[in-house]
Amino acid sequence: MSAGEKAKAKAEQVVGKAVRKVAHAVGNETTAAKGAALEARGKARDTKERSKGGFKH
Prior knowledge:
Blueprint: H1 3-26, H2 29-52
């Protein structure tokens, strides 16, 4: 996993989580769902990049 891809995945997770929590706190469920989707996309990207590396011990 390249450092750039890892940073993008982590950034999506962090931003998505922040957006989700703030939107949920103010009662904007549509934006909260978008934040959750962004967070999930970051987690999926991270998982995808990790799987490319194979099984390293």
